[in-house]
Amino acid sequence: MLMKLEGYENVHVVQRNKGSSSIPVGIEWMLRYKKMEIPDIESFQENFNTEVSDRLDNFENITKNIKGIYPKLSFNIINFPKGKGKEKVNEIEKIVKKGNPCLISIGLNKPFSSGTVFHTVPVVEVDEKTVKVLSMNADNIKDQVKSFDRKIIEKLHNNYSDCGGVLILK
Question: For domain 15-169, which architecture applies?
Answer without folding.
Answer: Alpha-Beta Complex (3.90)
